[in-house]
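Translate structure to sequence.
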């Protein structure tokens, strides 16, 4: 009996809950880690309550949406270094167009920005397919293009957003409050929807197929080029969601935000969330707590009295350790198969 046959036999004899826990173990672990960090943070500060929870969820939501954008593209076998620039571009565009407008106009602008960002990023995916240039090169160029375009739209921090639009993302008309539920509901609905789509629909599963083995996916009848364009389009839409959340939190647009740093954080978040950089493996559900953890690390280290410069070193070391662990897990999985 082969090793794969033995594994299948053992898996088939396990209780359903054991198979479920084994399949989703990494996701469960990331959520447990987030809760453990929150509990630890509560012991470091004099008072921990609704305001602190709202601060974690609301201020971490842009990174969560950005990490989901990156995860979708990486699952399909690509990588997008331009998502941080797209966040900045959509943020300043929203701030420029929403200033002084009522909620209805603001919502129309937000929807238009999401679709426009998806179309633009789909164009990036199309260029990658046509030119055959690696994703990392084309998307690095898109990062600088988006960042420069954002500066042209809004050279200095300015603009605004309707107070009710701010409430949708932050639970407060001023962007600062103790109500995390609007952000939680928005994250839950959008991420659950895309998670269901990825795991239950033919188009969603095609992203995993192309990311796992592009040649095999092509031989099975999938259009790999179309799948890549689709992944970049959806990723662009979620990057726009991150930009809108950023505008709602800050109440204005700032083109001087460094998109490259945001991109690196999104990559770190998907690695922590168990998404393999080789493609074809991962869950967007696990990316949500991973994004919040990365945002949350800085306040924790500050509360511990760690110097900000040293805090960046600690974050880097943690990311490297996580990448090593995921690499070992992937290596063992390949050996078993």
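Result:
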């Amino acid at each position: 009996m082969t090793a794969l046959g033995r594994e299948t036999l053992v898996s088939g004899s396990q209780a359903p809950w054991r198979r479920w826990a084994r399949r989703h173990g990494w996701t469960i672990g990331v959520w447990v880690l987030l809760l453990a960090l929150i509990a630890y943070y509560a012991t470091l500060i004099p008072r921990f309550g609704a305001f602190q929870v709202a601060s974690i969820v609301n201020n971490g939501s842009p990174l969560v949406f950005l990490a989901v954008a990156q995860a979708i593209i990486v699952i399909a076998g690509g990588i997008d270094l331009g998502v941080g620039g797209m966040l900045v571009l959509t943020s300043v565009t929203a701030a420029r167009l929403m200033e002084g407008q009522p909620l209805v106009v603001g919502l129309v602008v937000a929807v238009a920005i999401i679709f426009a960002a998806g179309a633009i990023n789909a164009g990036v995916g199309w260029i990658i397919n046509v030119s055959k240039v690696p994703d990392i090169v084309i998307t690095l160029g898109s990062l600088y293009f988006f960042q420069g375009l954002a500066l042209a739209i809004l050279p200095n921090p300015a603009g605004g957003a309707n107070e009710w639009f701010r409430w949708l993302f932050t639970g407060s008309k001023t962007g600062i409050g103790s109500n995390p539920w609007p952000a939680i509901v928005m994250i839950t609905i959008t991420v659950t929807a895309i998670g269901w789509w990825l795991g239950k629909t033919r188009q969603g599963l095609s992203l995993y197929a192309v990311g796992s083995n592009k040649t095999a996916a092509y031989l099975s009848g999938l259009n790999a080029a179309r799948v890549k364009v689709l992944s970049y389009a959806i990723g662009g839409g979620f990057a726009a969601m991150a930009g809108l959340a950023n505008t709602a939190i800050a109440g204005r647009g700032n083109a001087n935000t460094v998109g490259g740093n945001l991109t690196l954080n999104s990559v770190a978040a998907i690695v922590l969330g168990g998404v393999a950089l080789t493609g074809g493996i991962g869950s967007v559900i696990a990316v949500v707590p991973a994004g919040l953890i990365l945002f949350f690390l800085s306040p924790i280290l500050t509360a511990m009295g760690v110097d900000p410069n040293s805090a960046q070193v600690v974050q880097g070391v943690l990311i490297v350790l996580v990448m090593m662990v995921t690499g070992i897990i992937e290596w063992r999985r390949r050996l078993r198969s």
